[in-house]
């Protein structure tokens, strides 16, 4: 069993917004940290420019079964099935099953990231 992750984005600012999609497959390993997406952040601290990598999506697989895995994310995500984003979500544990992909969205207002996780045999 492997984990496939389709990464894309969304924007409420542009009517004809076309996200770039990327898809990757990963081996399933218990308690290993997976860092899927990062961005560089720059800011000034003590009059010096500092650059840091910020994790947008990372998780650990905390449970493996025959037909599902449970993940624990390091950030909160919205997992609503009705294509809405729960801005107040503080959820960090999710189950990915063989039957249905799991769609996670960053709980942001105007634009954000979407990650669709699927188990493949």
State the gist of this model.
This protein is mostly beta strands and 121 residues long. It has strands at residues 2-11, 22-27, 33-45, 48-64, 68-73, 93-97, 102-105, 111-120.
The run of helices and strands is EEEEEEEE
Would you tell me the overall average pLDDT? 91
How widely separated are the two ends?
4 Å
Count of helix runs:
0
Main pleated-sheet profile: 4 strands, antiparallel
What portion of the residues fall into strands of 2 or more residues?
over 45%
Which structural class fits the helix and strand makeup? mainly beta
Uncertain segments: none
Strand order of the largest sheet: 2-1-8-7
- Rg is 16 Å
| Tertiary shape | globular
Roughly what percent helix?
Answer: under 10%
Number of E strands: 8
Break the fold down into its secondary structure elements and pairings.
Blueprint: E1 2-11, E2 22-27, E3 33-45, E4 48-64, E5 68-73, E6 93-97, E7 102-105, E8 111-120
Explain what this protein looks like in three dimensions.
The structure is a single chain. This protein is mainly beta and 121 residues long. It has no helices and 8 strands. The strands form 2 sheets. Strands 2-1-8-7 form a 4-stranded antiparallel beta sheet, with no helix packed on it. The protein has a 4-stranded antiparallel beta sheet with strand order 3-4-5-6, with no helix packed on it. It is globular and about 55 Å long. It starts with a strand and ends with a strand.
């Amino acid at each position: 069993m492997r984990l496939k992750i389709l990464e894309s984005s969304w924007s409420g600012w542009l009517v004809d917004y076309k996200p770039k999609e990327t898809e990757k497959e990963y081996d399933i390993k218990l308690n290993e940290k997976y860092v899927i997406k990062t961005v560089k952040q720059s800011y000034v601290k003590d009059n010096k420019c500092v650059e840091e990598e910020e994790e947008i999506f990372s998780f650990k697989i905390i449970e493996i079964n025959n037909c599902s895995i449970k993940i624990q994310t390091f950030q909160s995500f919205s997992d609503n099935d009705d294509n809405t984003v729960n801005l107040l979500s503080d959820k960090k544990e999710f189950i990915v099953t063989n039957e249905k992909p799991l769609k996670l969205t960053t709980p942001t207002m105007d634009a954000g990231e979407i990650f669709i996780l699927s188990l493949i045999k």
